[in-house]
Amino acid sequence: MKKCVISGYYGFGNLGDEAILFALVRALRSSFPGTDITVLSGNCEHTASSYGVKAADRWNPVAVWRALRASDGLISGGGSLLQDVTGLGSLCYYLGVMWLAILAGRPFWIHAQGIGPVRSSLGRLLVRLTLRRARGISVRDPESKEELVAMGLAPELIEVTVDPVLTLDREVADLQMGRRILERWGVKGLGEQKIVGISVREWRGLTAYRLAVAEAADRLVESGCSVVFLPFQYESDVAVCRDIIRMMNRPSSVVDEPLSVVEMASVIACLDLVIGMRLHALILGHAMGVPVVGISYDPKIDRFLASVGKEPAMSVEQPDGEVLIEAVLSHR
Known about the structure:
Protein name: Polysaccharide pyruvyl transferase CsaB
Domain Polysaccharide pyruvyl transferase: 14-299
Shape: globular
Organism: Syntrophothermus lipocalidus (strain DSM 12680 / TGB-C1)
CATH architecture of the largest domain: 3-Layer(aba) Sandwich
Pfam families: PS_pyruv_trans
InterPro entries: Polysacch_pyruvyl_Trfase, Polysacch_pyruvyl_Trfase_CsaB
Largest sheet: 7 strands, parallel
């Protein structure tokens, strides 16, 4: 394709999705130099300036239509776009963009997506009817393929690949940049102590898991580590981080500023361990060669951990501080 449109959850400050876009644009430019890329975004100015692409307002049907008509095709993904946990509206939006591509006479591809959960009968029907029109389908884990097959799609049409962020490596990180950011937010002992990064998020009003994280963080500090909280969705994650810090008895830090993909990769590359609820905190940690400990709130966490031979240390629905502490301390 000389001209392509990319659809996903871009331009909303979610660092995981921004990392997907960063990796996807990087791969397209490596494989197809000179490709004209337009991203459907919630913040066109930020997306265009951050990635050197064109951007169209994802909420403006006319802008989306024009972008599709001017393109050679649509890439939908990656990320967890085809799910109805956050509501049927989100699922219908991404499927709707695919139907706009069909109406515009343009092919579309599903790229490295994590599928589901899609719990509603209507949602599953819509996914099946839409994806049967796809030029190609790739998913980021075997369970996503199983989910699509269960919805009625032919297994031979679905390729299992990896999350785009796993194609990144330490070459994208700048260790000096990472150290400067950590020092700016009060992380002490760089080069002398082990540094542990923690990524958490709000989930359905549950709070008991926060105490378990606070207890584990305290134990890490008592054992001689420095602990820093890493928000992946600024500013909502910061509130959860600060709530956990208030529960702690020992000092810790939080990176209280929005970071770019390269900045967060640089910070994570400086760490000795990542404890994560956020999927892409775990994926970036693994990509940077840093050990990870996962806290499950969604099947996508379990799927990724299984792909690297691990299990979640605990779930947010059944928090167990002692089990989390044991898993964390085993990486000391």
